[in-house]
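Model: You mentioned two targets. I'll fold them one after the other.
Researcher: Yes, keep them separate.
Model: Target one:
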Amino acid sequence: MRVQVTVYGAEGCWKCTNTMRALELAGIACQLVDVDAAGVRSDLRDMGIRELPYVVTDAGENWTGLRLDRIVELRRRVLSAAATATCA
C-alpha cells in the first residue's frame, strides 16, 4: 500500500515543519502546500479548518495539528499492507 499525503501549512509554522519531518521519517511520501502562496487559506477557513497543518491522505483521511499518533497509525497500516502484499 502506497499512500500520498498532502500537508497544507504555512511558512514558519513549527507544527507544519514537524509534521512534514515526522512523515518523512516514517517513510510516507508527502507534499507541502503553502496555504498563503497557493491562496487557499480562506478556502480552508470556509471549510471550518482553524488549525494548521491540515493533513489529507489519498485514502480520504484528514486531521489538523501535529498528530504523531495519526502518523504512527498511518505508518503501521502502510507497513502492514506491504507485508501482506509480499506474502501474497
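Model: Target two:
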Amino acid sequence: MLVGHVDSDTGALGEFAALYDVRPGDRVEVRRDGARPVVYRVTSRTTVPKDDLPSSVFRRTDAPVLTLITCAPPFVPEQGGYLSNLVVTAQPSPA
C-alpha cells in the first residue's frame, strides 16, 4: 500500500494528483531503488468518505495487490480539509 498527498497546503500538486486520471486497465509502475520496477494493472478505483475507508485496504492476506490512497474532494477547510479518499487497487502484471 502506498499513501500520498494529492497536494500541499500551498496548493502545489503532489505525486498522487495523477491518480485522479487513472482508470481500470491502466498500467502502474512502482520503481524501487536498486531493483527492477514492478508493473501492475489497475482493477478498480473508488472514492469513499474518510470515515468509511474500509479496513480491507489494509489487508495482508490473499493474493498481492497494490493499493494507492490519496485525498479526494470535497475540500472543506473548516472541517479539516478533504473529506474523502480516492482508493485505487491494482494487481501484478507481466512487464
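Researcher: Noted. Anything on target two?
Model: The chain has a mean pLDDT of 91.
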